[in-house]
């Protein structure tokens, strides 16, 4: 089973009040030197079967239509490599 | 300015109703073959100055005390390389 990660973030030109709230709280909490914070969503999808080009295209469509609001959000789709990779003999 | 990404996900043993809601909706929407979905948070921090071991230790502390609830959530901290773009701009 492969894991595909979809990251959904507000577009840079869209105000991010959650991120701003975090960023403004940091100096009060003793953390200096963080110029900006943006907060978004991370989806981990466990995919049955091979994650080939067709599967990734399907997940891209899923993210575009369902996980992200593409009017205000950008998203990225990537396969997360397992910590231990096994290679089948040819 | 370097970007550090903090991913916060519910621990595997904690029920994730948001992820479950997404996963259950997928077949209705025509997406089969997704065995599980977990939904978490992604924070992008723009860090002033060099991201050295001390800065990363500080951000780790920040994530642990402020961004994640470590009773129910796990988090990872990583530096995002600026040169690598996952999605080509249109």
TrEMBL record, chains A, B:
Carries keyword ATP-binding? yes
Q: What is its EC number?
A: 6.3.5.3
Q: Nucleotide-binding: present as a keyword of the record?
A: yes
Reactions listed under catalytic activity: N(2)-formyl-N(1)-(5-phospho-beta-D-ribosyl)glycinamide + L-glutamine + ATP + H2O = 2-formamido-N(1)-(5-O-phospho-beta-D-ribosyl)acetamidine + L-glutamate + ADP + phosphate + H(+)
Q: Which GO terms fall under molecular function for this chain's record?
A: ATP binding; phosphoribosylformylglycinamidine synthase activity
Q: Name one GO cellular component term.
A: cytoplasm
Q: In which pathway does it act?
A: Purine metabolism; IMP biosynthesis via de novo pathway; 5-amino-1-(5-phospho-D-ribosyl)imidazole from N(2)-formyl-N(1)-(5-phospho-D-ribosyl)glycinamide: step 1/2
Subcellular localization, as worded in the UniProt entry: Cytoplasm
A Pfam family per the record: PurS
Q: Spell out the InterPro entries in the cross-references.
A: PurS, PurS-like_sf
Which Gene3D superfamilies does this UniProt record tie to the protein? Phosphoribosylformylglycinamidine synthase subunit PurS
**SUPFAM superfamilies from the entry?**
PurS-like (SSF82697)
Assigned keywords, A-Z? ATP-binding, Cytoplasm, Ligase, Nucleotide-binding, Purine biosynthesis
State which residue ranges cross the membrane. none
Q: What class of enzyme is it?
A: ligase
NCBIfam families given for it? phosphoribosylformylglycinamidine synthase subunit PurS (TIGR00302), PRK05974.1 (NF004630)
Against PANTHER family, the record matches this protein to:
PHOSPHORIBOSYLFORMYLGLYCINAMIDINE SYNTHASE SUBUNIT PURS
Q: How does it assemble?
A: Part of the FGAM synthase complex composed of 1 PurL, 1 PurQ and 2 PurS subunits.
Family note: Belongs to the PurS family.
What name goes with this protein? Answer: Phosphoribosylformylglycinamidine synthase subunit PurS
Q: Which organism is it from?
A: Streptomyces cacaoi
Q: Which gene encodes it?
A: purS
């Amino acid at each position: 089973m492969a894991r595909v990660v979809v990251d959904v973030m507000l577009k840079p030109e869209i105000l991010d009040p959650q991120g701003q709230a975090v960023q403004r709280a940091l100096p009060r909490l003793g953390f200096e030197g963080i110029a900006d914070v943006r907060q978004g969503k991370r989806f981990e999808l466990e995919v049955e079967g091979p994650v080939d080009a067709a599967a990734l295209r399907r997940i891209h469509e899923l993210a575009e239509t369902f996980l992200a609001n593409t009017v205000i959000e950008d998203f990225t789709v990537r396969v997360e490599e397992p910590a231990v990779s096994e290679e089948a003999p040819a």
